[in-house]
Amino acid sequence: MTSNIKKHWKLVLLSLAFVISVIPIFVLAKYDCASGDDYNYGALAHQAFLSTGSVWSAVVAAVKTTIETWYSWQGTWFDCFVFCLHPEVFSDKFYPIVPYIFVVAQFAAFSLLGYHFLKERWKLQGYSWLEITLVFLLFMFQLVPSQKSAFFWWVGSVHYAMPMCLSIVGIVLADRFLSDHHMKDVIVLSIVSACIGGATYPAAILLFVVIFVLWLVEVVIKKNNDSRNFFLLIPFALEFAGLFISFISPGNAVRSASDISDGAKPSGGVVSTIISSIRYSFTDAWDSFISEKTFILIAILLIIILIKTPLIESKEKDEKTFAKRFEHPLLFVVTALLINAAIYTPRMYAGNMVSSGYFNFNFEVFFLCIVGCVIYIEGWVISKNIVLDSLKRRVLVIATIIAAIIIAFVGRHGVKKYTGYVCLEYFLSGHADDYLEQMDLQRCLMEDDAVQEVIVPQINNEQGPLMHMPIVSDPDNINNIMTARFYGKKSCISISREEWMQKYR
């Protein structure tokens, strides 16, 4: 046991660091509650489940809500269907499982990606794939722009985190098929692709573009013209069928008009969208990710250090194959940057007015592309037998340490926006306990069968990393309407907590 720990000490330390980093997320899980859009999408399913006790009735109601939403608001039918089946539809005690679902799902998806491409495709030895994956997840979870849409809010996480996970699964299945040609991979990929066609648009673009690039690598670079590769046209067709259903939704025009009225300025045309996406992908990378989340550079430094030995070992095992694997660094980098830019096209086309979860998606794709480029370039450098003497190595080590210190100093102010800090501050301040107590009271009042026009005490909408869309004094406010629908009430309003206490307690 002790010898294994000594042998894999880096993996042990990274595993401990990752586990510690997600503890604040799990600490807040018990305070997580449905809110706003959760109530809206889950209303019919919740009422169906309450009246029948049947999960199937809730699913049927979810289908009805999805169709209504397709006509009235947006076309992403698969996401909308899953929106409708959040845990609080079935019990007001179930919503705290939401952070566990999305932490585990993202850990599993990105681990699958790391294992497949680092271990199986790039043939890195030992557990180096897991070390790199843990570094990526550690920093991704901490630096993610919106904790709400990454972990805590069902609708936000389903709309962005879930499609990201499905896209990763689809990419791995496609690459496996191109390598092994097992039809089971195409079958599962076809199901995933059809679902992604009805999910958020950046996920649909990511899946299609990456699989197309992988196919080009096989045909153009590897000269593999196996006719079985054309079976990938099946999942492509299913994804486009799903996208077509999304595109023709009458609700898209309604939502677009709403966005424009709120200040969105659509890019206007395919060429303009592509140019805007490429340009903005660079400015956003600097302004939103590197400048605001400077610690991402520490992650890159760690990966550069961790990946060196596995790359050297892989090279020593088969030098010729290793050199061939990393022979196109410029092409790899350009392709990665264009893939990153492609994810911005729906955002630019819609006028750059998107929900916070889209920022998460952009950040994660950017981070993945940068990690991939760093590993590939380092592999190429090692393949060229570029060796530093002892003095230059010492200088490089010292420079790396100094760089890490500078990055930590420059980026220290951004720490207050990182996930661990945000979660712990919210918990330790006592605001989480206050919020849960207030939500328990609100639920109790909303579930009172004797009252149809409910009056609740106000709740502050600023709830740290948790999503809360509060009931307000206007009964016609969308938050009020959505909440009343979920609980089957005629209406609901809020008054100041002090006034409510005087009148009803």
Which range best describes the helical content: under 10%, 10-25%, 25-40%, 40-55%, 55-70% or over 70%?
Answer: over 70%
| Strand order, sheet with most strands | 1-2
End-to-end distance: 60 Å
How much is the radius of gyration in Å? 25 Å
Overall strand count: 2
Succession of helices and strands: HHHHHHHHHHHHHHHHHHHHHHEHEH
Identify low-pLDDT runs: none
Mean pLDDT score, rounded? 92
Going by helix content, strand content and strand pairing, the class is mainly alpha
Q: Give the overall shape.
A: globular
Number of helical stretches of at least 4 residues:
24
Main sheet characteristics: 2 strands, parallel
Q: How is this structure best described in words?
A:
The protein has 505 residues and is mainly α. Helix content is 72%, strand content 2%. It has a two-stranded parallel ribbon. The chain is globular.
Summarize the structure.
The N and C termini lie far apart (60 Å).
Q: What are the key terms here?
A:
505 residues, mainly alpha, two-stranded parallel ribbon, 2 strands
Helix-strand blueprint:
Layout: H1 2-7, H2 9-29, H3 37-52, H4 55-72, H5 77-83, H6 98-121, H7 128-143, H8 147-152, H9 154-180, H10 183-197, H11 201-221, H12 233-247, H13 251-261, H14 270-290, H15 296-317, H16 319-325, H17 329-342, H18 345-349, H19 356-383, H20 390-410, H21 419-428, H22 431-446, E1 453-457, H23 478-487, E2 491-495, H24 497-504
Parallel strand pairs: 1-2
Helix pairs in contact: 2-6, 2-7, 2-21, 3-4, 3-23, 4-5, 4-13, 5-9, 6-7, 6-9, 7-15, 9-10, 9-11, 9-19, 10-12, 14-17, 15-16, 15-19, 17-19
